[in-house]
């Protein structure tokens, strides 16, 4: 149809059809998001349950002033085997030195960690990279060789 101004008029989609298309599009997007969220929750929940039984304990530590090396013995007192650890040293001035290890600690076993570091240690920590909640820390007073 041509109007007086010479422009063409075209009919739009009926409002009923546009509402149906909008609802259908929304349902498809919601279905995709629901499938993704369900899978995400299952994976997260299984990791959480597995890691709930993960525990670490720094049994002993020693600082060798001659070699400027810190040694620590870490006990896996949890219920699952763990591998991959961060060994973190916080110095008195607040700076942090860290080292990663691919050591596997089976349940009930002790692993040894060592790191070159200055003697002005404030704290040492061990953290599992597999289970973030599995960690232990001790202050300098518990480190043989520098503690008081």
Description:
- This protein is α+β, with helices and mostly antiparallel strands and 148 residues long.
- It folds into 2 domains: 38 residues; 86 residues, Immunoglobulins (Immunoglobulin-like, Sandwich), CATH 2.60.40.10.
- The strands form 2 sheets. A 4-stranded antiparallel beta sheet has the order 4-3-6-7, with no helix packed on it.
- The relative contact order is 0.17.
What's the SSE blueprint?
Blueprint: H1 15-51, E1 57-64, E2 69-75, E3 82-91, E4 96-105, E5 110-116, E6 121-128, E7 135-139
* Second CATH tier, the architecture of the largest domain: Sandwich
Q: What about the largest sheet?
A: 4 strands, antiparallel
Q: How many domain units?
A: 2
The CATH superfamily title of the largest domain: Immunoglobulins
User: CATH topology of the largest domain, which one?
Assistant: Immunoglobulin-like
Radius of gyration: 30 Å
Estimated share of beta-strand residues: 35-45%
Indicate the CATH class of the largest domain.
Mainly Beta
Keywords, please?
148 residues, alpha+beta, Immunoglobulin-like, 2 domains
What's the gist of this structure?
With 148 residues, this protein is α+β, with helices and mostly antiparallel strands. 25% of the residues lie in helices and 37% in strands.
């Amino acid at each position: 149809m041509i109007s007086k101004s010479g422009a063409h008029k075209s009919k739009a989609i009926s409002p009923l059809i546009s509402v149906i298309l909008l609802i259908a599009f929304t349902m498809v997007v919601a279905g995709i998001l629901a499938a993704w969220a369900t899978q995400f929750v299952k994976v997260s929940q299984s990791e959480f349950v597995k890691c709930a039984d993960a525990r670490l304990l720094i049994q002993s530590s020693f600082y060798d002033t001659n070699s400027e090396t810190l040694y620590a013995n870490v006990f896996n007192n949890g219920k699952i085997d763990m591998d991959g650890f961060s060994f973190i040293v916080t110095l008195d001035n607040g700076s942090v030195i860290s080292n990663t290890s691919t050591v596997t600690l089976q349940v009930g076993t002790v692993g040894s960690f060592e790191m070159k570091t200055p003697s002005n240690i404030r704290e040492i920590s061990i953290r599992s990279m597999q289970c973030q909640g599995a960690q232990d820390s001790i202050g300098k007073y518990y480190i043989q060789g520098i503690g008081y």
